[in-house]
Amino acid sequence: MERAKVCILSSVHPALDTRIFYKEAKTLAQAGYEVTLIAQHDKSETVNGVRIIALPSPKNRFQRIFFLTWRIFRLALRQKADIYHFHDPELLLVGLLLKLLTGTKVVYDVHEDVPQDILTKAWLPSLIRRPIAKVMNFIEKQVAYHLDAIVTATEAIADAFKKPEPIVIHNYPDLTALPQSDRHQINASEFVLIYIGVINRLRGAVEMVRALEYLSIDLKVRLELIGKFESPDLARELAAMPGSQRVRFFGWLSWEEAWHHAQSATVGLVLFHPAPNHEKALPNKLFEYMAAGLPVIASNFPLWKEIVEGNKCGLTVDPLNPKEIAQAIEYLIEHPELRQEMGENGRRAVIEKYNWEQEAEKLLALYQRLLERV
Fold first, then answer.
1. CATH number of 175-352
2. With contact defined as beta carbons under 8 Å apart, do 63 and 35 qualify?
């Protein structure tokens, strides 16, 4: 029996993106689908049963939006897939054209509330952000109406779509990737804070480094920042801050390498600012820290408080207040048994309810329905 062909598209994310590759593409390949992924990568190759068609890294946004998308469209057409699954709002036109020209099934995977996200784009002049957000909202909803399925990362994003009715597939950790050994760091000689992800202002980079200035020099505290800087200016600014003497900047690391660092850390930090697109988000790293057995210090958004405090797996603070962040760090340093208990609670919560296994079932059920639909 011939396997159904799936073609996954992204112009923005790297091929080995956690959600796109390690969760969705791998799940589909393991379920027997013939999966092709078209995304930025250093070479075309097959990884874990997923055939990657490598795209070059664009020099700038203009090149990515106006040239890379056209290249993706041409490559996608050649695949003659049974289902196309795209992940970026700038591929909306590509998705619509694939639907109109091939008549096959097309899925739009929405990671962010796009209109709200536009309102926080520092590279856009502030005067035009709101008009662009309104135009983009209209285009997104009109195109979505003609597609076969909408997948969203959170319930809050799903609320913005009416037809087709969206399927929420959360970015929860894959239990098969979790190490089986328990962590025992109650008497750790060094207290290691970790942040993994894009390093920018809206995700609390400045406040994390500044918080270190409020901690006694007698405390052996180190902050590990793992990820790409959004701008060279921010990298220089952080390096010039007094707290940077306690920071190790690692740059981008693979998921496996980042996970290794998380395993040897003491506390995970998720200190996003209260931007429009953050307060109802469910960031990957919050659950990955929990899965690694790390207690977390997170922004005190109502949804995040419900998860963190409801599962007794960490502390929530005002992400704009470096002194309050420092107090939370110091509290966890002074209470090692509580820290251990919080880490165990977080890991248990992931194993019991915040895991990819249940989300994978929703993805596979959606694909089965699409293939059965005439």
1. 3.40.50.2000
2. no
